[in-house]
Amino acid sequence: MSAVRRVVVTGMGIVSPLGNRIDTFWDNIHSGICGIGPLDRFDVSDYPARIAGQVRDFDYSDLIESKAARSMADFTIYAVYAAIQAMEQAGFEPDGAGGWDPFRSAVHLGNGIGGFEVVEDNLRKLFERGPRSVSPLTIPKLITNEGAGNIAMRYGIKGPALTIATACASGTDAVGAAFHAVRHGQVDMSLTGGSEGAITQLAVSGFCRLHALSTAYNDTPLTACRPFDATRDGFILGEGAGMLVLEELSHARARGARILGEITGYGATCDAYHLTSPNPDGDGAMRAMKAAIDESGIPVEKIDYINAHGTSTPVNDVIETKAIKRLFGDHAYKLRVSSTKSMTSHMVGAAGAVEAIVSLLALKEQFYPCTLNLNTPDPACDLDYVPNTGVEDKMTWALSESLGFGGHNGALVFRRYEE
């Protein structure tokens, strides 16, 4: 049997409520800054939820030409912008420049909702002015695969260009699929991550009707997302993208790449239980985490940190805590867990990829990010969630998990890179 191929990360890019460059984003995570604010993209006076994690101060024109952007939905613009950052950091240029083979490379992009704003804009045109008013770019802009397609076209990537749609687990599952493609020799490099741009009237209305969003803290958005706190009442909708360049280790070494971290395991399961609620016993989440750890070839006691799904919903946080305790036993009380959604908001299809970036940076910088607004602990959530202030401490292994509508569970294990 051939040796297991090690998979490393050589580039990262971000568009988020906490900044649109990796350095800015990490500085804000490190400082415990919250990117949630009033939702001002449309009139929300009749909406029960009136706050969001919006991307702000975003000028894509420094990296994306205006002509190209006109054929993209928001989620695609975010993905392409973050992808360019990641490829630049990795030292790759289009069409193989920088030491990569376009035919041995891939795109794996997670997305949950697609171009919702394109749907809404063109439905208005259809109902107000008839079918001839609908833009001919409606379909190419709104469908979820166009993010991956645009990235592949920009860089001339000729291997697989795949879109993973598993709701809030999409980003994690996309990175996991990319990891397996590199690990098993299908490709030598994948540009992977997740993207979402669905802070629209229809999306916010729909999530409100599900009673999924926070409605109690509209006047205090900085304290609205409070994972694992007894006073939590729902998640805060966000947007943005996180992208990573994954490479086989010898491929990265051969070109002298700077290695940012290593991915060692991925697990995915389905609850097969309910459209929007996780299984109360936490079995699916537990099995996804176990599969990722098993593939890493380590005992569960090696994990130092879990970047939790931690949505700040009454149901999720208790079940996720239960899953962690089922898998880790006594070690659950020795490791640290945090939800950085308390700062970023819930970026849906982008969430898992952004949290993979957080986990890798946490390992690199030896820093445990905090869970903001954890002031009234829920008795059912009794682990160390790094409340309110991050912690400088040693860390070798980290795990990130995502749970999505439809019962999708994904988990990734990361190791601090060592030669």
From TrEMBL:
Domain annotation Ketosynthase family 3 (KS3): ranges: 4-416
Keywords from the UniProt entry: Acyltransferase, Fatty acid biosynthesis, Fatty acid metabolism, Lipid biosynthesis, Lipid metabolism, Transferase
Catalysed reaction, written as an equation: (9Z)-hexadecenoyl-[ACP] + malonyl-[ACP] + H(+) = 3-oxo-(11Z)-octadecenoyl-[ACP] + holo-[ACP] + CO2; a fatty acyl-[ACP] + malonyl-[ACP] + H(+) = a 3-oxoacyl-[ACP] + holo-[ACP] + CO2
Keyword Transferase: yes
Summary of the function given for this chain in its UniProt record: Involved in the type II fatty acid elongation cycle. Catalyzes the elongation of a wide range of acyl-ACP by the addition of two carbons from malonyl-ACP to an acyl acceptor. Can efficiently catalyze the conversion of palmitoleoyl-ACP (cis-hexadec-9-enoyl-ACP) to cis-vaccenoyl-ACP (cis-octadec-11-enoyl-ACP), an essential step in the thermal regulation of fatty acid composition.
Family listed: Belongs to the thiolase-like superfamily. Beta-ketoacyl-ACP synthases family.
Name of the protein described by the UniProt record: 3-oxoacyl-[acyl-carrier-protein] synthase 2
Naturally occurring in which organism (per UniProt): Parasphaerochaeta coccoides (strain ATCC BAA-1237 / DSM 17374 / SPN1) (Sphaerochaeta coccoides)
Origin organism lineage: Bacteria, Pseudomonadati, Spirochaetota, Spirochaetia, Spirochaetales
